Amino acid sequence: WQVRPDSLSQWSHCPLAPVFVLHQDLVGLRPLSPGFARLQLRPQLGDLPDLHVVSHTPRGAIEFRSHRDGASHHVEVTIPRECGAELVLPAGAPCALPVLPAGGDAGLARYRMPGGVSRFDVPVRVP
């Protein structure tokens, strides 16, 4: 596949689909309100060794980094201070963030993420 600058080959659905999968499915980034005033992060990293993704939103950049170390992914996320955020992890995964009320998803736990930098672990396999 040869990309010609400023041509339709750069805007085909084929090269864009992996970008959507990366941001919305692997990182699990979804807006909960218009303009990303509130967002949800539900990482599903499988056995990826490392991942670094920057998502640009109207409120600023969201930076997601993960590094696999044995049975866990060590994750660091930077969220604009103006955003409200919730993290969704498998129930039973240890997390020091404040717990949110259950959202009706069996087997999942929700946590409040402050603006700025948050660090947490995501298990490679559900406990």
Descriptive account of the structure:
Helix content is 11%, strand content 43%. It has 127 residues and is mainly beta. Strands 1-2-6-7 form a 4-stranded mixed sheet. The protein has a 4-stranded antiparallel sheet with strand order 3-4-5-8, with no helix packed on it. A hairpin with a 6-residue loop joins strand 1 and strand 2. The termini are far apart.
Annotate the secondary structure layout.
Blueprint lengths: L12 H14 L2 E3 L6 E4 L8 E8 L2 E10 L2 E8 L4 E7 L17 E6 L2 E8 L4
Parallel strand pairs: 2-6
Antiparallel strand pairs: 1-2, 3-4, 4-5, 5-8, 6-7
Short description:
The protein is mainly beta and 127 residues long. The protein has one helix spanning 13-26; strands spanning 29-31, 38-41, 50-57, 60-69, 72-79, 84-90, 108-113, 116-123.
Q: What is the H/E order?
A: HEEEEEEEE
What gross morphology would you assign? globular
Structural class: mainly beta
The largest sheet has its strands arranged as 1-2-6-7
Distance between the termini: 42 Å
CA-atom Rg in angstroms:
16 Å
Q: Total helix count? A: 1
Mean pLDDT: 87
Number of strands: 8
Mind summarizing the main beta sheet? 4 strands, mixed
- The fraction of residues assigned to DSSP E strands is 35-45%
Instruction: Give the low-pLDDT segments.
Output: none
What percent of the residues sit in helical stretches (DSSP H or I)?
A: 10-25%
